[in-house]
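User: Quick sanity check before I run a bigger batch. Here is a single chain. Can you write out its predicted 3D structure?
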Amino acid sequence: MSSTSSSRSGLDRSAILMMAMDDDTAAEVFKHLSSRDAQQLGMRMAALRNVSSEQIEEVLREFSDELDQYGAININSSEHIRSVLIKAMGEERAASLLEDIFENNEGSGIDALNMMEANVVAEMIRDEHPQIIATIIVHLERNQAADVLLCFEERLRNDVILRVATFSGVQPAALAELTEVLGSLLDGQNLKRSKMGGVSTAAEILNLLNSSHEEAALASVREHDENLAQRIIDEMFVFEDLEKADNRTMQRILIELDNDTLAVALKGTSEALFTRFTANMASRAADLLREDMEMRGPVRLSQVESERKRILDTVRRLADAGEITLSGDDDEYV
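Assistant: Done. Predicted structure follows.
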């Protein structure tokens, strides 16, 4: 074997072998690999670039007759890898493994955008189609995404937030085309096909905006889809977030709640969150709450979640009425 081939690692040679096989044969090999080995081999297959026929023959000399038909391995190997893994593992396991494989081979362009000043990134992308902007936004770190959005005028910012909330990922068929469109912005790097975007991403970004921008964006989403807006709101503030509420807010919330609701809702909470409630109650009321919870014994999780939702509905009603503040980001007092 030549020095070129012998200098390659065993993993490199295995990847070349797998790429030279037909899908069914490669799938049979994958079936006998551990998850860790399958991921490592898949990542190396995805990283193969410009493997010549001569190199293939050196690695696979015992199969040289069969390799004549292949020539150089196509560098766009993702479809072959996907087909092999699906046949070997089924759709669900393959999808998860592909996520890990391609996430480790892509994204350096996005890393560069995360390191830039937000206003520079905003200038680079503001003239792109809002859907392309949304696609970039969901791949940025959340703080960077929020800062970039703040650089846009309100109409564009709200449009992008709506698209982020309804983002369901880049379809494989459109990935190459989208990558080409974004190539000049991202230095030719591919975007991840990961489970990014959607309601949770929109909520995380909105949580980092000040209240006026947050309210404007939610109003825009509500005009498009009231249910979607509510889902975002539900993601933005969860029961555990009450641990961060100030004393005045907690005291105002407690006025609206009865002991039965609290005794169920606080089952299974962290000690810190439980203390956040009891610290803002009269000592006698706190003692009665503890006794009530002990006497009730185990409670169905569905009941706990129902009572927590009741509390969150109360919290949102008070926040909408301006009676409490859920975030101190604005630093405004009246």
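Residues 192 and 231 are 25 Å apart (CA to CA).

User: Great, the batch can go ahead then.
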